[in-house]
Amino acid sequence: MNGEGAAIEIRDLCKRFGENEVLKGISLRVEHGSTTVILGASGSGKSVLIKHVIGLLRPDSGEIWIEGEAIAQAGERRLNEVRRKFGMVFQGAALFDSMTVGENVAFPLREHLSLSEREIRAIVTEKLNLFGLFGVEDKYPAELSGGMRKRVGLARAIVLNPGMILYDEPTTGLDPIATENVNGMIVEAREKLQVTSVVISHDIGAAFAVADAIAVLHDGRIVEYGAPAAVRASEHPHVRQFLSTWFSRV
Known about the structure:
Blueprint: E1 6-17, E2 20-31, E3 35-39, H1 46-53, E4 61-66, E5 69-70, H2 76-83, E6 86-89, H3 101-112, H4 117-130, H5 146-157, E7 164-168, H6 176-193, E8 196-201, H7 204-210, E9 213-218, E10 221-226, H8 228-232, H9 237-244
Parallel strand pairs: 3-8, 3-9, 6-7, 7-8
Antiparallel strand pairs: 1-2, 1-4, 4-5, 9-10
């Protein structure tokens, strides 16, 4: 088997830092065009898992396949090419405060492509407009709401037309209305761009609002995986306890 057919496939992934065993045999398959949420409490290993997917960490053992290509032992040059397949929406948007919105979105274009300023401006405007951000190119991040900054972060993430988007705790620190807007943004990105999305989150409500599949991560293991309805019906003790903080059980 070589991971063919899946956008991302992880098999028996293990990682420890000293005496701390963080990932304890993770296996996960993410289908093309789907939105998969990796749901878990702080310290469950979500961020460590995602860093392996984009090659920022090397596994102690196990395999990672990106669109049929094994990357666990790939060289740094090849990993940089694989990373171009991904757009990343960081927690808090991670925009450069000293740059305008337009400059923030244009940053990957200037880093990776040789384009004229006119071409860059046209692409930036197109990506911003795609998510309802009209006429904000010359504003600074501090002039925007939290939800708008998240959308700018998404526009920057897709400016190189990646096939996959990773969202790092996208609703953390947002009020309920802004959270709903960000959830809509994730669904909108999938529908408009046909991208594969992976969301890492501890936000149960947001997970069930956007996911095609949910993987519940606990103590370095995926203890439940499936469609949202199946995960909600799980009999696993941790999953039941974790979800009960959001859903009232009859």
